[in-house]
Specification:
This protein is of the alpha/beta class and about 180 residues long. Helices cover about 35% and strands about 20% of the residues.
C-alpha cells in the first residue's frame, strides 16, 4: 500500500525560511487580472514554484483582500510582490535590467511553450493577461517571446491561473534539474 502523507510529513519550508531561500529567476506579471480568486491562485502557484516576485499591474487587486486570501491560503505572506499601475512602464524597466519578457498569448507568430529556449543565467518575466482581453497589445509588442500552450480540444484558451501553472512548471523543470 502507498500511504498518503500527512501535511506535516511534507517537510515544507516555513514562511521565514522560504523568504530566505534562493528563488528561481522568474517574475510573474499579472496584466489587469479581474478575478480576485485568480489573483489568490497566482500567489499560491508562485509560492509552489518558488517564483522570485509577483507583479500586480493595472486593475489587478492587491492584498489584503478576503477573496484573494481565500485561494492564496497564506501565500500572500510568503511571496514577494509589488503593485505597478502601468504594466508597460514595468516591462520597459525590467527590459532595461536585462529581463527576458515572455507574454503568454495567442498571436500570429508564437513560440510553443515546449520549444521556448530557456537559458541559464537569464531572468525571465512571464506576463499573464486579462481573463477577457488577454495581454495588452503594447505589452505583446514589447515582449521578447510570445508563448502559446498547445491545446488539442475545442476551447480557445485555458483559465489564466491554470495557464500560469502550466507555464511555470515548464520553467521550473528547466531550473530544478
Amino acid at each position: 500500500m502507498n500511504r498518503k502523507l500527512k501535511l506535516w510529513e511534507l517537510n515544507r519550508s516555513s514562511i521565514a525560511d522560504f523568504k530566505q531561500q534562493e528563488k528561481f529567476p522568474i517574475y510573474l506579471i499579472l496584466d489587469n487580472i479581474r478575478s480576485l480568486n485568480n489573483v489568490g491562485t497566482f500567489f499560491r502557484t508562485a509560492d509552489a514554484f518558488n517564483v522570485d516576485k509577483l507583479f500586480l499591474c493595472g486593475i489587478t487587486a492587491t492584498p489584503p483582500h478576503r477573496e484573494i486570501h481565500k485561494t492564496a491560503l497564506g501565500a500572500t505572506e510568503s511571496v514577494e510582490w509589488e503593485y505597478h499601475e502601468d504594466c508597460a512602464a514595468l516591462i520597459e524597466q525590467l527590459k532595461s535590467e536585462g529581463v527576458i519578457i515572455c507574454s503568454i498569448e495567442q498571436t500570429e507568430e508564437t513560440t510553443f511553450l515546449q520549444t521556448l529556449p530557456i537559458e541559464n543565467g537569464k531572468k525571465y518575466a512571464i506576463v499573464m493577461g486579462n481573463e477577457v482581453d488577454g495581454v495588452q497589445q503594447a505589452i505583446i509588442d514589447a515582449s521578447d517571446h510570445i508563448v502559446e500552450i498547445p491545446q488539442f480540444g475545442t476551447k480557445h484558451s485555458l483559465n489564466v491561473s491554470v495557464c500560469a501553472g502550466v507555464v511555470l512548471w515548464e520553467f521550473v523543470r528547466f531550473y530544478a534539474k
